[in-house]
Amino acid sequence: MKSFQEQINRAKEIHKILCNKYDIHIPLEFQNLNGKGGGYVVTTKLRKGKYHFLKKIVLDNSGRWCSDPDYCLCHEFAHVILIERKNSVRHDKRHANLTKKLAKEFNLI
Question: Can you give the pLDDT at residue 5?
């Protein structure tokens, strides 16, 4: 069983690998979200919601969320990829499949 700090360090490594692999460079930040979620992607959008611009990924570092930070990173990075490629921010089948693919790539599931 990995310690929580090891999971955070692993999330940072995975972030670097995914940024290089998908050529999407987005900052990663850790904040104390008090277990109110594993993380989120900060975006800005133009009027009428047509285009999203990525600003950063924020992950919880409180240790109170049920998912590990490395898995949460895969989940949020799936959003990043879909925002970049399809302009989609939804939790749908495409997002679920991409999250699973990324998590399997790093032996997280």
Answer: 86
Helix %, strand %, coil % of the chain (to 5): 50, 20, 35
Question: Tokens for 95?
Answer: 């997002």
Interatomic CA distance for residues 71 and 17, integer angstroms:
14
**Residue ranges of the chain whose pLDDT lies below 50:** none
How far is it, in rounded angstroms, from Cα 109 to Cα 106? 8
pTM: 0.88
Among residues 20, 22, 14, 19, which one has the least CA distance to residue 73?
A: 14
Distance between CA atoms of residues 54 and 29, nearest Å:
13
Instruction: Tell me if 47 sits within 8 A of 18, measured CB to CB.
Output: no
pLDDT of residue 73: 93
For 52, 53, 71, 105, the CA distances from 31, given in Å and listed in that order, are 23, 21, 16, 26
**Closest by Cα among 36, 40, 45 to 28:** 40
In this prediction, residue 49 carries a pLDDT of 64
